[in-house]
């Protein structure tokens, strides 16, 4: 059982300890290409971690995104990486029997996926985009992987049923749609920068998502995809909530990361969770969400699991 009162007692005791006594630690965090959905999250994460644990130094490494982060974590050239559920699913499927998964430190946030089009376009549903030029995001990113699974759940292939565009940079996508060189842009996350740019333009944006029956079809095929809601006013001009599918993204560690570092990270993340004010990007980065998103406690990094036991979040 998740027992909050024990956690608050523990954190109160930790907060009373002099910050200067904390051992200095340094970790490398793999993020995303410029303009990716992970970019604003990583900025908020690093700055807020610095405020609650100044001796924990996080060096941001700009990478090719989720797939690149997973590969670098496997190789041990990163300590932490931001990885989507879709990429974790692919890595798990490719592992030899009984091989360990990359250990999880925390969830980041839920990543609802949608297609964005110009508000003055004729496109009203996903099927209207068959045969059209669609920007799926840079190859190897979690966003592009999510698009592939969602469309596959609808019986569509993003490379054959559409004219696919895989830009080198996320920032290229909104421009292609606004200039009429592409019909639509796939994006995932809340306040995803590409959608903000598209919706904030004078022409504005319309968002296309699977309907209720299609969501059920997608989830029947890919259980790691979940039903999610994009709250009203998430994007400029968006008056109503939008229901779609998506997944959780995770902070993942390399194998063999020191248990002390995992414990320190879990402690710092929970301190952030208790802040009266924190960046909105970190609102879903909680111990409760992490425990609800994983299949078993064995998926947690050992230091994180130790902290959760000390805080009585798990037995």
Description:
With 315 residues, the chain is of the alpha/beta class. The protein has 2 domains: 4-109 and 249-310, Periplasmic binding protein-like II (D-Maltodextrin-Binding Protein, domain 2), CATH 3.40.190; 111-247, 3-Layer(aba) Sandwich (D-Maltodextrin-Binding Protein, domain 2), CATH 3.40.190. It is 37% helix and 20% strand. It has 11 helices and 10 strands. Strands 1, 2, 3, 4, 5, 6, 7, 8, 9 and 10 form a 10-stranded mixed β-sheet that branches. Strand 5, helix 5 (142-153) and strand 6 (163-165) form a beta-alpha-beta unit. Helix 6 (172-178) runs parallel beside helix 7 (193-200). The chain is globular, with a radius of gyration of 20 Å.
Straight-line distance between termini: 8 Å
Order of helices and strands: HEHEHEHEEHEHEHEHEEHHH
- Say which CATH homologous superfamily of the largest domain is assigned: Periplasmic binding protein-like II
Tally of domains: 2
Query: Tell me about the biggest sheet?
Result: 10 strands, mixed
Proportion of residues in extended strands: 15-25%
Structural class: alpha/beta
Q: Which stretches of 5+ consecutive residues score pLDDT under 50?
A: 1-11, 13-21
* Mean pLDDT, all residues: 90
CATH class (first level) name of the largest domain: Alpha Beta
Shape: globular
Radius of gyration: 20 Å
Q: CATH topology of the largest domain, anyone?
A: D-Maltodextrin-Binding Protein, domain 2
